[in-house]
Amino acid sequence: MSKNYIVGFPRIGEQRELKRVLEEFWAKKCSFENVQNVASKLKKRHWEYQRDAGIDFISSNDFSLYDNMLDTSLMLGAIPKRFANLKNEELYFAMARGNASTVAMEMTKWFNTNYHYIVPELSKEDNYSLNASKIVDEYNEAKSLGIKTKINIIGPITYLGLSKRADGGDVYEFWGKIVPIYEELLKTISTLDDDVIVQIDEPIFVKEPDMKMLSLIKPTYDRLAAVSPNIKIAVVTYFEHSCEATKILVHTPIWALGLDFLNGDENLQSLEIIAKSDKKLIAGVVDGRNIWRCDIAKTITLLENISKVVTKENILISSSCSLLHSPFALKYEEEMSSEIKEWLSFALEKLDEISLISKLFFDGKSSLDEAQKEALKSNEKANEDRKNSPLIHDKAVQERVKNRALLQREGDAKERLKLQREILGYSDLVTTTIGSFPQTPEIRKARSDFKGAFISKDEYEKEIKKYIDECVAFQEECGLEILVHGEPERNDMVEYFGEQLKGYGFSQNGWVQSYGSRCVKPPFIYGDISRPKSMTVEWITYAQSKTKHIMKGMLTGPVTILNWSFVRDDMPRGEVSKQIAVALSDEIDDLQKAGIKIIQVDEAAFKEGYPLRSEKIKVYEAWATRDFKIAVSSAKKETQIHTHMCYSEFNDIINTIEDMDADVISIETARSGNELLKIFKKVGYTKEVGPGVYDIHSPRVPSVEEIVKQIELLLEVLPKEQLWINPDCGLKTRKWEEVKPSLKNMVEAVKIVRKKL
């Protein structure tokens, strides 16, 4: 009897092999055949790892060269007209990244994760047609290795719900065009084998129930389940509960339902109707999004409670979501504290946990062999040791945070901005950048060599200062008005701070995919957080000493540090965030005492942390806003506080943004025209705003004319006195040969617009 199941698996490679070959291909250093060869090796290795761990249901088509939503658009033939003259890999990567003449498709966060997907664009003029070659080829690839896979696909309702229409209409109007393509796909899949499991991911079901969306569930799955008797459909959801959808799905002929019992406790309320339907329950009980070792005893208790309602024969033990959101393997962590390492579990370790839990749950403790018994003892000991470790608890931090009540800055925003304008003396449509500049191979090498003790501290600092000197000189030459130091000393906007905060841990190879080839290596919070000494003052003050222009101080905000870390699971997230905020308030005080007049506190991931259900949002907003305000509460009214937010729909959080009370907010809007900005006008937002005027996620250099047009669009929404002009986001991932002409064009565009005004 098949007993366990993996929703999906990481694809970037355990040593980021896919990242490296993609970037070589984009740089024209290798052929696309090289990319395909690396991809084939990775898929083979990943399938074999899962098989060897004893996993019964292994996926194909969870692999992607860039993004699964993008793959689905190609599968459906949903290709925007501007890409019509392109084919094959040129088409694929142009849709994702743009090219010299074509703007990329929009990109945004996958629910409340740090993974980004390519937003489908739908148009009434489009004609959709099936291209199932990737799905068929991958299934057969696994089959040739003796591995029979389930086939993962993004569900039609989720695909539509996460799409946008060129004319702004209802995306669900395309249901009648899209569902027949899915039926055709399932007919094609039905020819591949005598019986095939198709996992259809419908995470849209965990969001707020929308009557239009709910009304489509039964007709969709009645039709899809009727395509062929040799296809079994498993509808899988994750990140929250999907109780409303479950009530409908149990009345369709699908084979199984996948539910997340770690992030959606309410799913327990659906057990009775699932039991009555006699469908399989894919029970997500091992965390696919965090790195802590599973508490197997606790998990078995949860499963026993589930089995009181749903019979054991109908339960499959699963990860809570795809392991895409987990690092690959602990075996590469050679420098980590052995004590802390015992508390952790990455993707490969989670396979073993799921395999052991299924053996224990279905066959009992007496069925375990000696190695499994040892693994169970190790699990019990690691969880007990973690609870009692002195590394976790710091009474001084707990007392200080408990007594921290100051939330509000001096003066209201109107008074502060008037004073800041007088002191700082900047013009309307003032130009700046978000913070980071290209991380060159030389800088990365210097940082790596210093960490590895191959160069001295003096040699390292000489390299960093040289970069800052060049960065400042370029900005002055370019004509930018508010400067940044470029962040050459920073490996990552969260990891850099985590390395200097007590209570943080780090991995050597804990990479997870953010988008395309972009990987991040989140630090992890294992204990109480404090700041032993200043973290940024030395480099910012050095940069300020090299120019008469104003130099922005650059910090990552408490909520983003939290959301882009793997967070301890033994205390509420809001309490962890508050500890970080208190530490950052000390840093802001040190910066302003050192003469830094503008400090940017990035909250790039503020929206990312939002609960997916409205009833839970107020609690999150309360502590997230509180902690931003605690972090900046040490700033005097003369000190201008900026923040930056990445891809977000601002309509539903504009009041929260106002409550955060930053003096200036910069936002990513370049792929969205001025649409995201309109809410700022609608609510009468009076603080200052820096909407991105060009997309930094694409390698293309925007022309002066494009940026002039973008600024003019912004001026249709907000007056020039309120607007700052900047790129969409930090420039760390771009190359200097892209950055320099882009920023020069941006400055030139501002000059043209100022003359017109």
How would you explain this protein's 3D organization?
The strands form 7 sheets. The chain has an 8-stranded parallel sheet. The protein has a 6-stranded parallel sheet with strand order 14-19-20-21-22-23. It has a two-stranded antiparallel sheet with strand order 3-4. Among the domains are: 4-117 and 133-283 and 295-324, TIM Barrel; 426-488 and 668-757, TIM Barrel. The protein starts with a strand and ends with a helix. The chain contains 27 helices and 24 strands. A hairpin with a 2-residue loop joins β16 and β17 (518-520).
What's the helix count? 27
Named CATH architecture of the domain at 4-117 and 133-283 and 295-324:
Alpha-Beta Barrel
Question: Might you state the CATH topology name of the domain at 4-117 and 133-283 and 295-324?
Answer: TIM Barrel
Uncertain segments are none
Report the count of strand segments: 24
Outline: globular
Radius of gyration: 26 Å
Q: Helix proportion of residues, in percent?
A: 40-55%
Sheet-strand content, in percent, reads 5-15%
Q: Biggest sheet, in brief?
A: 8 strands, parallel
Task: State the end-to-end distance.
Answer: 74 Å
- Report the oligomer: single chain
Give the key terms.
alpha/beta; 6-stranded parallel beta sheet; TIM Barrel; 43% helix; 27 helices; 8-stranded parallel beta sheet
Tell me the layout of helices and strands.
Elements: E1 4-5, H1 17-26, H2 32-52, E2 59-60, H3 68-76, H4 88-97, E3 107-109, E4 116-118, E5 121-122, H5 133-144, E6 150-154, H6 156-161, E7 164-165, H7 175-190, E8 196-201, H8 211-225, E9 231-236, H9 243-249, E10 256-260, H10 271-277, E11 280-286, H11 296-307, E12 315-319, H12 338-341, H13 347-363, H14 370-388, H15 395-402, H16 413-424, E13 430-431, H17 441-451, H18 457-478, E14 482-483, H19 495-498, E15 502-505, E16 512-515, E17 518-520, E18 524-530, H20 537-545, E19 550-556, H21 558-563, H22 573-593, E20 598-602, H23 614-632, E21 640-645, H24 654-660, E22 664-667, H25 678-682, E23 688-691, H26 704-715, E24 724-725, H27 736-756
Parallel strand pairs: 1-12, 2-6, 5-7, 6-8, 8-9, 9-10, 10-11, 11-12, 13-24, 14-19, 19-20, 20-21, 21-22, 22-23
Antiparallel strand pairs: 3-4, 15-18, 16-17
Helix pairs in contact: 1-2, 7-8, 8-9, 11-13, 17-18, 22-23, 23-24, 26-27
